[in-house]
């Protein structure tokens, strides 16, 4: 019997032995660094079903753009990981944007919005692309005029903001979009593991989680969104190649005008990262393994083995969550007073 026990112990897969030994300590360490998704996100803007419904309609409505072509969903496509899977997004008059579009899923948990953190919350972020000349190229007055021209929108704004005198406003549009975006959360196997389900992650994913913490990745990619909470230089140890880190985009420097913020960016949140290629603010890296390799070298000064990269990518796969079921809304009908779209020809 003793011989048989020894033989079984030798034959026991290393991964199984690892998991049995590791789980209690790993979970405790992970809970000290990360936070599972809360059941209800907390924002300053009171969330109501009426606001969510209005925000959903606005999120999908191309009439928020001056051309009538682009909506929020154009760059933050809810069917493709909450982004558009382009290097940089295409906007008004078919112009290419300067930076890769981040995912909108779980963005409510970011400390600030945009790669440089120039918007303090989703409400402020919602106003930016609508007014950006290379995105939706519209104005607040034009947007409000468009919305007021459609009785259904007026009714929806009245229902969403009943205590206000002037209800169809650009500020309220942003509040409604923010309300809808707070529903775009994607609970993942990693959350189930943090909440007590030891079987939610594979042995390889758990080994990858341990490596993620041991190597120092979690120094920046921590919290609820595994990122999105701080600002760090891209190239902390070793500057990446110029295609990955374009010299003409100095990140947060444009926001703070502080020399120390040159090439500093908000840490990218990692939830659903397996679905949101290409990577980095430049959108130049399409392979997740290569992205992991670049981050290890530039931020940690580490040269990873193929096995280590495999384990880290396996862990990142545990962050792919369940996407909420989204049905496209039926949008209000236009009237004779609804403003006509502008030309999409550049300069016209």
Class of secondary structure makeup? mainly alpha
Distance between the termini: 86 Å
Q: Describe the biggest sheet?
A: 2 strands, antiparallel
Total of DSSP H or I helical runs spanning 4+ residues: 13
- Morphology: globular
Low-confidence stretches: 1-20
Strand content: under 5%
Q: What is the number of E strands?
A: 2
Radius of gyration: 23 Å
Q: What series of H and E elements makes up the topology? A: HHHHHHHHHHEHEHH
Mean pLDDT: 92
Strand order, main sheet: write it out. 1-2
Helix content class: 25-40%
What are the key terms here?
single chain, 348 residues, mainly alpha, disordered N terminus
Summarize the structure.
Helices cover 39% and strands 2% of the residues. It has helices spanning 2-11, 14-33, 49-60, 72-75, 122-131, 140-148, 151-160, 170-181, 189-194, 203-214, 253-256, 288-300, 306-317; strands spanning 231-233, 264-266.
Descriptive report:
This protein has 348 residues and is mainly alpha-helical. The protein has 13 helices and 2 strands. The chain has helices at 2-11, 14-33, 49-60, 72-75, 122-131, 140-148, 151-160, 170-181, 189-194, 203-214, 253-256, 288-300, 306-317; strands spanning 231-233, 264-266. Strands 1-2 form a two-stranded antiparallel sheet. It starts with a helix and ends in a 31-residue tail after the last helix. Mean pLDDT is 92; it is low at 1-20.
SSE inventory with pairings:
Layout (H helix, E strand, L loop, with lengths): L1 H10 L2 H20 L15 H12 L11 H4 L46 H10 L8 H9 L2 H10 L9 H12 L7 H6 L8 H12 L16 E3 L19 H4 L7 E3 L21 H13 L5 H12 L31
